[in-house]
Structures are given as structure tokens and as C-alpha cells.
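Request: How about a record?
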Amino acid sequence: MRWIKYIWILIIIYIVCSARTCTESEEPSEEQKEQYTMNLINSVKHVFTSDSLSDHFLRAYEITAMEKLTDFADYMKIISDTTLDLKFRQHSAELVRNLFISDEIELSGWSRSYHAPDLIILEHLISYGLSEGVSRWNKPIQINIMKPFNNINDSTFTGRLSFNYISLSFNNQDTSVTPSAKLAIDIYLMKKTRSFGNDRFRVWEVYLGDMN
């Protein structure tokens, strides 16, 4: 699952930040290895549930937002491809909805390649892709942090990405590429209550927002 990729981004950063120095060359005991593993698990859990986040982890969540923008494009490609099984396309539609803070998000700019009116709202775009399909799909390129995550209250950070996209044809015989103007998308980092087995935690999650 894709969310595992986002978890590993944070784990890798933690390992780098807490790695032993080159001067500590002695072989750790089994007890030390076990303790290190427990510390790693607790620290990763702390990152997802902590009330405060360091700059290192805010940057990691910004990378997650960039990954989710790419995921959005991949899922929309599946949704809009009428040669694929409808159930597969419908599942991708649910995954798209989960990426955004709301299904009423406005995506002005992105929907220009669909050549159909009234597709500014995310849910309208999804419904059109499922019912009609499209001949082209959009691929984000040159994704950058336009505005880093900044907290607006105890449970919400906001930021912004900038990017271009290219519009590609599903028809392999049509190799034309239509470049877009630069677009921007709001990103959110919010605490949400989630169930993990018998436990419930408030964890940080990244969402996409309005695009223009």
C-alpha cells in the first residue's frame, strides 16, 4: 500500500538523524539491538502522534504531499482509462477522494485538458472520468515547495506546492505533449483520530487542497 511509502520516508529520516557515529565501531549486543529497535518504533510512533513537529519531519511531510500529488495524477489516469475494468477504476476514485481534504475541492487549471465544462470541482472531475473517460491524462512535473508547512493551530499546518503538468495521450500513436502553465495546490497537515487494532490515536496526516 502507498501509505507504507510515506511511513518509510519518516523512518529513514529518523535513522539518519539518530545513526551512530563512525567512531562508535563496536558491535552492539543483542540487548542493545533490541533496545534500538524499540526506540525506533517509539520514536516513529511519537512522530505520528506528537503535538509538535521538528523541521526535519515537517520537510518529510512536505515530501509526502508531493508524492500524493503524483498519486492523484496516477489514479486519475486509471479512472479515465475506459479500457480498464470499471471496479478497478471505481476503487481508484475512492483513493483520489482520500487524498483530498474535501471532495468539493476546486481544481481550476488541471481540468483544461478534459475539454468539458463544469469540471472544476473534484467530484465532478471524478464522475466525468468514470462515466465518459478522456483521451488524455495529466502528469505533474517540476513539483516544488512554494510555501513550507506553517502551523495555523495546534492540529493543522498549511502549505503550498507549485508545479507544471504535461498532458499525454492514451493513444500510443499520438505522441504529442501539451505543456501547462504553472499551477499551485494547497497542502494540509492535520491531526486525525485513527484506529490501530484496539487502540485509537490522533495521528498526523497529509491532504491536498484547492488547485489553481
Q: What stands out?
A: Residues 111 and 119 are 6 Å apart (CA to CA). The beta strands are 136-153, 156-169, 177-179, 183-196, 199-211. The chain has one domain: 2-14+53-211. The radius of gyration is 20 Å.
